[in-house]
Amino acid sequence: MRGLFLWTLLVASISFGSSLLFVLDVSGSMKGKIDGKTKLEAAKDVLIDVQRELPADLRVGLMAYGHYGEKDCSAIELLVPPGTDNRDDIAKKLYALKADKGATPIAGSLRKAGEILRKESGRKALVLVTDGIETCGGDPVKVAEGLRKSISDIKVHVVGFGVGGKEESELIKISKAGGGSYYAAKDAKQLAQSLKNIKREEIGRVIFSDDFDGDSLKKDWEVVNPNPDNMIVEDGYLQIVTETFKKGDFTGPVNLLLLKEKLPKQYEVNMKVTHVAPADPYLGAGIVLYKDDNNQIILFVSGDWGNWGDWKGVRFRKKEKGKWGTPVDFKYITKSEKLVVTLKLQRIKRKFIAWFRVEEVGEGETEVKTGRWYKVGEIPQLRANYRLGIFVFKNSDKDPDALMQIDSLEVREIR
Fold this sequence. Notes:
Elements: E1 19-25, E2 33-34, E3 37-38, H1 39-50, E4 59-65, E5 76-83, H2 87-96, H3 106-118, E6 124-130, H4 140-150, E7 154-161, H5 165-177, E8 179-185, H6 188-203, E9 206-210, E10 221-224, E11 231-234, E12 237-241, E13 256-259, E14 267-276, E15 283-292, E16 295-302, E17 312-320, E18 323-324, E19 328-334, E20 338-348, E21 351-361, E22 373-380, E23 387-394, E24 403-413
Parallel strand pairs: 1-4, 1-6, 6-7, 7-8
Antiparallel strand pairs: 2-3, 4-5, 9-24, 10-13, 11-12, 12-24, 13-23, 14-20, 14-24, 15-16, 15-23, 16-17, 17-18, 17-19, 20-21, 21-22
Helix pairs in contact: 3-4, 4-5
């Protein structure tokens, strides 16, 4: 939420089960400066950062051109094939790229990218990030038009770094021919805004978002069982002190926040939370889909219960007609006192799917990689007339109080 490039180059993360291929210009002209960095350095920072924001089941790949040779028009390489468990590989490949004297074979790169995406199912997006036009005699507009005609459900988007005049006109033609959009990035601020626009275009309508950067709750929230002494919006967080349930068994949470906005048929919720407490006590925070005390679905991060020992983990549970189903757990995340995690809950067709990603951990043993999405599991559900909420808890009055900090929550419709 707080970095300049946090949203940058969420450049067409399209709907779930689909594929996205970044095509990055690493030609000699990318040594030019933008915001005190070379264009390539800025692009790499952005692309590395965006790996942490792309949907977990979006198939993402990386291609580069102009990254070796002196004006070598064959310097086109698929660095990382499209996949869902390859974000670390993409980051490593990006770190290693250097601009020298390479050419700009845009047409050839688009053609090769099309060959790769042709094999993918579902919606497909190709995102060209460049600061110049074709230098190898090809016709990228004709190639983009051909991709649009020959590959079902594909879009070619173009992001231009610091270009103008004739160069920009040519890049706009490529995006139009490919059925996509062109976004200009003359400086870092415009880069961030352009990519926000692409995000909105491709990943679905944002229904609600709250970064808790004000000094009070938005009117969109209803607070159930309020205790104002233990909840405040401050320092960019919704801060809530854990309390026991009024009725036990995850029933009647204090300071339960329920969103007034109605949810669509298919949606995704992302909530970032900081859990700072010893791993051993059973206390935590999470997302709830709430009908009433007897019917709800919860996804939360917490410390120990039962045979977990002193680990923190994620649990996904459904209560129906007062009875809890079998828990779906990802048990072992960390023994660290500090854990910053993003919880993701998707409603797709007739099931709920839970994910998490660790953003930061303190000192202590850890079982998962930071920045990678992990799937907790799925829960089938035919009807889904729930309200979305946020809750924090501790299991017993004997457990210590802990402060849970909710950094942000976003809800968007899935196409």
